[in-house]
Amino acid sequence: MQSKPAGEDVGLEGLVPFWEGLRKERMFFTYARCQSCGLLYCPRYFTGAQLSELYANLAPNMDIVPSAAIAATQRGYWSAVADSVVPGGYMEIGPDVGHIVTPAAASGKFGHAWLFEPNRAVHDVLARSAGTLSHTISAAMDDFSDVPDGTISLAVMIHVLDHITEPLAILRQIRTKLKPGGRILIVTHNEKSLLRTVMGRTFPPFCLQHPELYNPETMTKVLTTAGYSGVEVQRSVNHFPISFLAQQAGQTVGLDLSRLPLPDMAVGLKLGNMLTTAQP
After folding, report:
1. CA atoms of 19 and 40, how far apart (whole Å)
2. What is the DSSP string of the chain?
3. Banded model confidence at residue 202, pLDDT cuts 50, 70, 90
4. Residue 75: predicted pLDDT
5. 244 and 257 in contact (C-beta within 8 Å)?
6. 240-253 pLDDT tens trace
7. Distance, CA of 1 to CA of 12 (rounded, Å)
8. Distance CA 227, CA 252 (A)
């Protein structure tokens, strides 16, 4: 899958305007499929230094969508595992402003939360989301050495894994932190979903922030390779305002519907995302 022009044919300065938010124009690095494992990935991508600079001042995740809709979506993610979580520590990579941290902290199941968020601009909001739960916030995304091994009962990655250039290394680190009976919860886009088939190259997950994209088979493969078992993949529900959905649909066919008086009521749909759980 390739944008026109392809991201690798544009200099860094030309890519910056396409880094953040959802735009009518599409630009991303060309995706290829690994002939060995089937993963959809970008053979050419940003350097580590470039990524650090780009992420440093990123706006809160999905800032274009009302916070109430985001909160409803994330509550659904928490509900999918809440009843089966055993007591222990909580760990989240890329928690953004802490939509899942809040119900996790209120559950009383966790003694400490380890939160790894590269966007320092949201750290204060994230701390408030943790409430009275003891917590540690770090801007690191690839070093979890401060987390004691075998103590985490739930590790969470919501739309994070497809942003990471070395997913196996990260997943293996997290596995060592999980306690017996602990679980990892991962939400990613599904690059083999019906929505992706319909939208083609306008599928929003085809973007500069995603060096790879997953489907149920490749997600199972990467977790199994990283040493996990009991992998379960299911379609996840997202809540979006009707106006947002209509505008995105209009962009797919080349129509600008942003000025139409469309309702902002949010609806829950299984649109192109998947929720995966696994055990160490």
Report:
1. 20
2. ---SS-GGGS-HHHHGGGTSS--SS---PPPEE-TTT--EE-SS---HHHHHHHHHTPPSTTTTS-HHHHHHHHHHHHHHHHTTPPSEEEEEES-TTTTTHHHHHHTT-EEEEEEE-S-GGGHHHHHHHHTTS-EEEES-SS--TTSPTT-EEEEEEES-GGG-S-HHHHHHHHHHHEEEEEEEEEEEEBTTSHHHHHHGGG-TTSSTT-SEEB-HHHHHHHHHHTT-EEEEEEE--EEEEHHHHHHHHHHHTT---TTS-----EEEE--SEEEEEEE-
3. confident
4. 82
5. no
6. 555 555 555 555 55
7. 20
8. 39
Q: Residue 130 corresponds to which amino acid?
A: A
Q: Write the single-letter amino acid at 32.
A: A
Mean pLDDT calculated for residue range 234-239: 77
Q: Could you identify the residue written with the tokens 């993610």?
A: 77
Q: Taking all residues of the chain, what is their mean pLDDT, rounded to a whole number?
A: 87
Both structure tokens of 34: 């690994």
Count of Cβ atoms closer than 10 Å to residue 126 Cβ = 21
